[in-house]
Amino acid sequence: MDVKKLAKRSVFGVLFLVVVIGGMLTPWSFAALTVLLGVVLPVEFYRMTLDRRYLREEACIIAAIVITSLLGVLHPLAGFDANWMMAGLLPVFAASILLLFDCAETHDFPTALYFPLIYVLLPLLAAQLLTRPLDGPFTWRLLLGVFVLMWCNDVGAYVVGMSFGQRPDSRKLFPALSPKKSWIGVVGGTAFSFLAAWLVSATFGGAVLPLVHWMALALITSVFGVLGDLFESLIKRHAQVKDAGNLIPGHGGLLDRFDDVLFVLPLAVIYLKLFQLI
């Protein structure tokens, strides 16, 4: 990578961090971040999996994701019943009705249309649970801490993997999907995650979780972050594209930056729920 490309990647990487971290600091900025992700992530997914004949149906599913996730963020602030989140089901039915007309002649059934309801909506709802542990007031500490674990895992995997995992005798993790990912990179990412868990607990995270649970989240991040990355690689291989989008110069699309997030957040919530920590 030349100096100019590295500089561009660094600048836009910092801007990306500013936007994401800023979006976690208040309930209203978190609502704005939720809308951004609820629109852009499924759009990038659809560009790789569906043709443009289903734009109306795609818009309905995106509306369902935005309505459901946004109402989930706002209902504690506005004081209305959380049952209103079920209004997000209405655009899903609308998408199914539209399919009747768009697929009547061809008998197609594009199941990928509905996949963002799992792939995108569930992580957005999981993120909301992390901002209100034990139904308390809004806090950025737990959600940001999990993101720090993921970011450090990415950095560690990249640095160690590129330094030691590209030798001819190095063992690759899943060469059919990601030829450069190596087992030594996974080990490096895991080590960085555990170090990040200690730092998070020692700084701002100790107020919401004991260190042992931050370490457990580091392990979840290391395992399922890699799986999320590989899953998105599978989608991109299917679409025969290098990046999911070009929204972030030097980095690709938002889906490229949130591939691990979409797997880690639901699993983190399951773990924390099992131990009654949220």
Features of the shown structure:
278 residues, mainly alpha
Summarize this, please?
With 278 residues, the protein is an all-alpha fold.
Describe this structure in words.
- The chain is an all-alpha fold and 278 residues long.
- It has one domain (3-274).
- Helices cover 68% and strands 3% of the residues.
- The protein is built from eleven helices and two strands; from the N terminus they run αααααααββαααα.
- The chain has helices spanning 3-24, 27-49, 55-78, 89-102, 116-119, 121-131, 141-164, 183-202, 211-239, 254-258, 261-274; strands at residues 172-174, 178-182.
- β1 and β2 (178-182) form a beta hairpin.
- It is globular, with a radius of gyration of 19 Å.
- The mean pLDDT is 91.
Q: In terms of per-residue confidence, which ranges show pLDDT below 50 for 5 or more consecutive residues?
A: none
End-to-end distance? 43 Å
pLDDT average, as an integer?
Answer: 91
Q: What is the succession of H and E elements?
A: HHHHHHHEEHHHH
Sequence of strands across the biggest β-sheet: 1-2
Q: Helical region count?
A: 11
User: How many β-strands, per DSSP?
Assistant: 2
Structural class per helix/strand content? Answer: mainly alpha
Radius of gyration: 19 Å
Please estimate the helix content: 55-70%
Beta fraction of the residues? under 5%
Overall, the morphology is: globular
Number of domains: 1
Describe the largest sheet: 2 strands, antiparallel
